[in-house]
Amino acid sequence: MRWSSMLLSPFRFRKVRSRFMVAMILLSVSPLFLLGYISFNIAKDTLTLNNEQTNIDHLQTSSEVADLIFRNIVSLNRSIVLNDEIRNDLRDSKVNSSMQQIEMNATTIDRLQKLINSNSYDTRYVDSLCVIDLYYQTYCMGRSDDAGIYETPTKKHDIEETDWYKEAVDAKGRVVFFSNNVLGDKSDVFSTVKLFRDSEDPHGRPIGLLIVNLSKSMFSRVFIGVHNNGTFMAVDSAQGALKVVYKDAKSIALPVMEGSLSDTVNKLRGQGYLVSEYRNQTTGWTLMHLIQKKELLKQSNRIGTATALIATAIALVALLLSVIISGTITKPLIQIKKMMVDWNKGIREFDGKFSKDEVGTIGETFKRISSENEELTERLIHSELKEREAELRSLQAQIKPHFLYNTLDSIYWMARLKKHEEAAQMALSLSESFKLSLNKGKETIPVFKELQHIQHYMTIQNIRYNNRFTYRANIEESIMNTEILKLIVQPLVENAIYHGLEPKLGDGKIEVSGRKDGDYFVFVVEDDGVGIEDMSVTQQGYGLTNVRERIVLYYGASSSFRITSGAGVGTKVEVRFKPYNEEA
């Protein structure tokens, strides 16, 4: 107490006005400058985080664009390798004379060109195609018929000793992407290598190589549309040492790229770079964005300067106002008492005005606390709504399919090449079903798209079960374009197939109907399957329980989910809800 008295003694003015003025100087000027400093740092951190997230989003989009091009190249590789004429030529290859070599090259180029044209492949970024036979004779389209830097008397030995050849052999027919031109004679291309294997040989002996050289200019399309700050790159770190696949023409001055990817990224960040990275799934390469932090934070520095000037101006105004209002301490306490009584009665809006003195501060503080209490109540309600939304998303995420586009694409094309139309149709329906279930991340879907999802699902099941099931949809036209919560009708059809029609002997029927009943939508899924003897099992299954909970969470307690069934007579499931979220 003695020390506090000694510290406060210089400020114990006889007049309250003087005390108030000194208090305003201490309590307003310092916090305002502190606020300016904090605002500057928050703005800087926010700008950095937003820029990093934006760059990662750009890199993810660029990676998806690159995957489209890479998948096209992979499909081109597979079509060439699966071509019977080219495989027969390689299997029967022999050492040719110069004239035979020319004729063989013309024949190979003609077959490659017909294959590309017949399948409409996008070859804009294909620089050249080369087929190498058992005797390492080279037949190329788009370049001279040679093996580049390996066109020597010891060509066979030189190629077989290269890392890229060994990796292609170890891949056992898989398309391998290399960050450089494996033939070594051009620096503006990179290569894919695929091994030809003899399908008639039980061990699948190698009978040749397919080398596709791609122009690095494809990355100009991959990175198109991104902002001009910094530089974008593609690097390969698969072998430990970092290799630059591509960097754009407007690259900033870069440090030496050496060591592993993580070492290089840490070094770049230590040198003041903001680094964003995203791994491409097809090639395993890393797409990167680099920008100097000092370049990025130029705007933030201007914000800091402006904030300091504003804080200074506010401090000066606060000092001036403290001199003017410090002597007015006459606000009646009765008005504050009346506000407290009204607040107890539930009134939250107060129109009373207070002067800027001690009593007025109490009154204004009470008004502010009342307002903040109301805001906190609203925030609490909003937080509860967010928790319900999170629970809804969690439940819905459990039924989203997790298939691979690349696998479906490969299945489809292989089935087409082998003329397995049913397998191709099944892959296509499964792919479309996958797209509809994901729905670009949206929670709702038009009714007609939900029906498309069901149609694709029935196509798959009828292929599996030799057209045992008859499906009919009877939906009112007026509701076809209305948005509803996705995956609430299709799971009911799936449940009817697996638990109603599949165990039944012979053919089965399933009907989906939908109509508008007042303010409600009513959907009914009915089958003539084996029915349900014990209705308690409907409370245990995951599918029906999931649909029931999602409908209640999204459409509220007024929605309903009803099941009627009898052993041997089939099952009927009725879903009723208002087409708009009651919690909205």
TrEMBL record:
Residue spans crossing the bilayer: 20-40, 308-330
Keyword ATP-binding set for record: yes
GO molecular function (one): phosphorelay sensor kinase activity
GO annotations of cellular component type: membrane
Record SMART domains: HATPase_c
InterPro entries reported in the protein's UniProt record: Bact_2-comp_sensor_kinase, HATPase_C_sf, HATPase_dom, His_kinase_dom, Sig_transdc_His_kin_internal
Segments forming domain Histidine kinase: 485-581
Entry keyword set: ATP-binding, Kinase, Membrane, Nucleotide-binding, Transferase, Transmembrane, Transmembrane helix, Two-component regulatory system
Protein name: Sensor histidine kinase
Annotated source species: Cohnella endophytica
